[in-house]
Amino acid sequence: MNWTDEWLSVLFSDEKKFNLDGPDGWAYYWHDIRKEPQTFFSRQQGGGSLMVWGAFSYNGTTDIAFLKGRQCSDDYQKMLEVQLLPFGKLLGGDEWIYQQDNCSIHVSNSTMQWFRQNQVTVMDWPALSPDLNPMENLWGILARDVYANGRQFATVQDLKLQIERSWFSLKPEFLQTLVLSMPDRVFEVIRKNGSKI
């Protein structure tokens, strides 16, 4: 099996914070080059927010999880039990692989033991390399849709509903393009000696 085929069995994951009053003041964001870039207003102060976990593969997305408060390893494992395990084989096949960043609760001894007990193969992932993860591109497109035309939200529930609408309207072709970009992403990281791609 070659690496292009291997990427088809990977479930890429990440967390992202969404604010009621728009995205955090980004210096840049990923957008579809066929569409005009949008201007987002930087947040001045306070406001509510939601922390969201999601994962996707070549074959589709998991459900998303809305995380409450500061997470610990046990919280992460409970979330994966509900949000990841039911989707592993469905989205990645019999030999699916889980990709995550190296956040401390993701790689703690208890979480790694949980992965072993649940027979989840975890991909080794380089530290400090968010631009390698195609979830960053997915979050960029999702945020563009959630905050389209400068949209802001009065309540956390309104924001949650829009995030869910945007998540479940992601096009399969977009997900497939992101996964198929992995060989080029890895090549670029190697070519740039680990620098930002």
Automatic annotation (TrEMBL):
InterPro entries: RNaseH_sf, Tc1-like_DDE_dom, Transposase_5. It comes from the Eukaryota. Residues 10-160 form the Tc1-like transposase DDE domain. GO terms for molecular function: nucleic acid binding. It holds the Pfam family DDE_3. Transmembrane segments: none annotated. This is Tc1-like transposase DDE domain-containing protein. It comes from Lasius niger.
